[in-house]
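Re: export button greyed out
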Amino acid sequence: MSQLLVVGTVAFDAIETPFGQTDKILGGAATYIGLSASRFNTEVGIVSVVGEDFPQEDLDMLAGHGIDLSGIEIVPGGKTFFWSGRYHNDLNVRDTLVTELNVLADFKPVVPEHFKSAEVLMLGNLHPQVQIDVIHQMANRPKMIILDTMNFWMDHTWDTLVEVISMVDVITINDEEARQLSGQYSLVKAAAAIHQMGPKYVVIKKGEHGALLFHNQQVFFAPALPLEEVFDPTGAGDTFAGGLAGFISASRGYSFEHLKTAIIQGSNLASFCVEKFGTLRLEQLDEQERIQRLEQFKNLTQFDISLQGA
Amino acid sequence: MSQLLVVGTVAFDAIETPFGQTDKILGGAATYIGLSASRFNTEVGIVSVVGEDFPQEDLDMLAGHGIDLSGIEIVPGGKTFFWSGRYHNDLNVRDTLVTELNVLADFKPVVPEHFKSAEVLMLGNLHPQVQIDVIHQMANRPKMIILDTMNFWMDHTWDTLVEVISMVDVITINDEEARQLSGQYSLVKAAAAIHQMGPKYVVIKKGEHGALLFHNQQVFFAPALPLEEVFDPTGAGDTFAGGLAGFISASRGYSFEHLKTAIIQGSNLASFCVEKFGTLRLEQLDEQERIQRLEQFKNLTQFDISLQGA
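Workaround output, generated via the alternate export path:
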């Protein structure tokens, strides 16, 4: 079986939306990526760090989804990374209330021996130096390296970020971040500029407006499924990236055509993620639901061009 | 040949964008709708009003595109409707600088005898009472009535607007307007509420984020083509509606499948409209360009779902 190695945060989140709020619940980029990727026929391993306060039952839940946790360091006496945020009525806008780095502040990633030849490496949103360290620990250059990042690293660690971007095949980034990274307002021009920085594939996430995949002069668009209710957007971007990475790893296909299907798979999983708080919906998702909704994605965009010229 | 009757403004616009500005140029909803619809194999007629100041060369240009102008009243001594607006750097936001109704203030539409049996009626954005008057003048109920409207009529003529909405088959409206009309934030719920008001098909325009088509429990999404540069968004929504109406009229098909292709055709034409000021790009568009870009729309969203399950 192929392998997908994921590096990213495993964390606690406290979330407030217009529809309710949570205490500290399971969160973190690698958690969402791992749960999403584990839907596909590939071995998923996580490299991360948590504190001694991290519940065994959450580790058991992740292991129950077939995720290899040997790369998760548990720091004795340490506290797990904690993030708290509040969403506005417009769920595209959120305020960060609390960020406690805790054990993440001194995180030195260690890739387990048996994952050093993973075909696909997914670098979740983290300090770009940590992302670079993980690439350097791989025994072989993975067939595909996928990078997620955010505006914080553009503001604070520009040079290191540019370095890691030059080392990857795929970057996933939201529309505002793509504009900031490239200095271009037009997303077509932004993608072209980011191509020049290294990645063959540029994926621009537009939240409820879907995602664009750019590759050379070609472009593909994956819509977001129109939902009656978006309950909690936390983790949607990571779930999207996890579906993308999981599908690519399982398919062992790295072409533009594979990437197209991969971002549809990611969009499909993200559409479930937002239906409940935190990871709840992903944990409970059954395979039949996932496949059925994939059919809806197909129906959402397929049309008969031959109807023209009446 | 089938007939499409269009009612709407024929006007002067003065436009300011971050890229330049114009003097008074040809504009108006019916102008864009007519130019767009005339791309299809159907007879297009316009019902509108202009002043004596309206240039013969603009009338000649429209006639040159095969558009029947016998329903355009020229008011002796009257002045043509004039609108002026300024777009922000974010082209989704614009300020209206001037609105001079002029001859539009007393507009009494008169449908020409030879268009009273048109199969498709497109009601461009106008006072809803004018839209109702046109419906009442038709000899037969058209096979499909398409309505475009805007928030101004929700604010000022609510009851009349609700009445005309109850009389049509298709409504096109932007996302914010759909929310205002329905009182629902979720576009899925908004569309369901608008269905209840009458229209079988609800088309929600999201500008650069594409358009959604709702029909009963079904939904279809037409992306906007990602463009390097949007130069002037004026008329894009009308061009979209014109392509939709023109295709439906030409195809004589009124099913969900036909509507899907129709909104792709409309999106395709709108993608040209925004490339130059005013109607310039639509006037110059050649048929081969139009067909080629339609192919791009197909490539933009088609994926191979069978790639799953590696």
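Chain B touches chain A through 48 residues (CB under 8 Å). The button fix ships in the next patch.
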